[in-house]
Amino acid sequence: MKFGIVGNLEKEGLQPVVKELLKRVHQGAIEFLMANTLAKAMKSRLRKEVAGRATIVTEKRLLAESDMIIALGGDGTILRTARFVGAYEKPIVGINLGKLGFLAEVSVDDLEGCFVDILEGRFMVEDRMMLQAKGAGLPQTFVALNDIVLDKYGTSRVMNIETYVGKDYLATYAADGIIVSTPTGSTAYSLANGGPIVTPNCRAMTIGPICPHTLTARPVIVPEDSVITVKIASAANKVHVTADGQLEKLFNVPLSITISKAPFRARLVRRTQTNYYDVLRKKLNWGRDVRIKPKS
Fold first, then answer.
1. Residue 123, Cβ neighbours under 10 Å: how many?
2. Which residues pair with 127 in a beta bridge?
3. Residues in a beta bridge with 178
4. Furthest CA-CA distance within the chain
5. Which of 135, 172, 174, 264 is the one with CA 20 to 30 A from 107?
6. Domains of the chain: which residue ranges?
7. What are phi and psi of 199, to 5 degrees?
């Protein structure tokens, strides 16, 4: 089995985890591929481990030849990796070197057990929908696993955001912006904005105005095959468009952006011992009372 290794070089714990992974190269038919960009940064630190136990390849070859991608970092690393993998749709297992870890849910302490489970077939792969945004000036690669956001830039004044679902007019929001999120992204910016939590197996998108100046304006859940058009005729300054809070571009008005389901999915590796609701309870501290001892 070939594992492609990608990681966030800014994470302090990256080096020992890579070293620990590469120790397993002689366990059965296992091969590690490492992108030359990551290997170049790692080589000076791990030298013998990288040189002797991982095959250094281009990013394109890593995507083509890996059976599974190991992403070392936090949720941000998973988001970047999902876009990096794109149409290759290779399964991604996230090792959490960050804090919360909704997506990269395997902790460093559980690395050994997780790796054994994968090698012995005790895992499942969840398909997660991704979004794509199209509009004049946007690259074809403007895709997201969590959300596409349009918001005001450099001003305190609200914008009038004309919103359509397919050919049907939804509303014109006087707001700071708008979030279109996937079920995966429902626990990210959308949740902080008062949106609902949508389980990953739901085939839907959530449209949520940001700080709307109409108290009755609420998030709307629409089918995943919807094409959402957002139009902004005027604004006090430029409009800020982001994908997963990582890709970004500024636009002059008038502006029209369409958001729809991407033609490929993110495929996240999950262990069979836990489910999505376990993750919610653990990460959000649901039902936790200091007076009550939790069940083991």
1. 17
2. 267
3. 150, 209
4. 62
5. 264
6. 2-121, 130-263
7. -65, 150
Three-state DSSP at 113 gives: helix
Please name the helix (run of DSSP H) or strand (run of DSSP E) that holds residue 122, with its range, or none: none
How far apart are alpha carbons 19 and 26 in whole angstroms? 13
Query: Helix, strand, coil: what percent of the chain each, to 5?
Result: 25, 40, 35
Q: Which two tokens stand for residue 45?
A: 């630190």
> What would the pLDDT profile of 63-117 be if each residue is shown by its tens digit?
999 999 999 999 999 999 999 999 999 999 999 887 777 888 788 888 888 888 8
Angle, helices 14-22 vs 111-119, to 10°: value is 40
Contacts of 153 (CB under 8 A, 6+ apart): 237, 238, 239, 240, 250
The strand pairing partners of 229, in sequence order, are: 164, 258
Q: What is the DSSP letter of 287?
A: T
Domain 130-263: assigned CATH number: 2.60.200.30
How far apart are the C-alpha atoms of 207 and 163, rounded to whole Å?
Answer: 9
Residue 23, pLDDT above cutoff 80 = no
C-alpha distances in angstroms, 236 versus 147, 171, 173, 215?
A: 24, 20, 15, 23
Going by the DSSP 8-state scheme, the letter that residue 271 receives in this structure is E
Catalytic residue (choose from 75, 147, 176, 244): 75
Of the candidates 67, 76, 72, 63, the residue with the CA atom closest to the CA atom of residue 31: 67
Confirm if 43 and 50 have CB atoms less than 8 A apart: yes
Is there a catalytic annotation at residue 109? no
**Per-residue pLDDT at 39:** 78
> 71 with 35: CB under 8 angstroms?
no
117 vs 127: CA distance, rounded Å: 19
Average pLDDT over residues 160-175: 97
Question: Is residue 219 exposed (0-12), middle (13-18) or buried (19+ Cβ within 10 Å)?
Answer: middle
Q: Give the closest residue to 39 by CA, choosing from 30, 49, 27.
A: 49
- The yes-or-no verdict on residue 13 having pLDDT over 80 is no
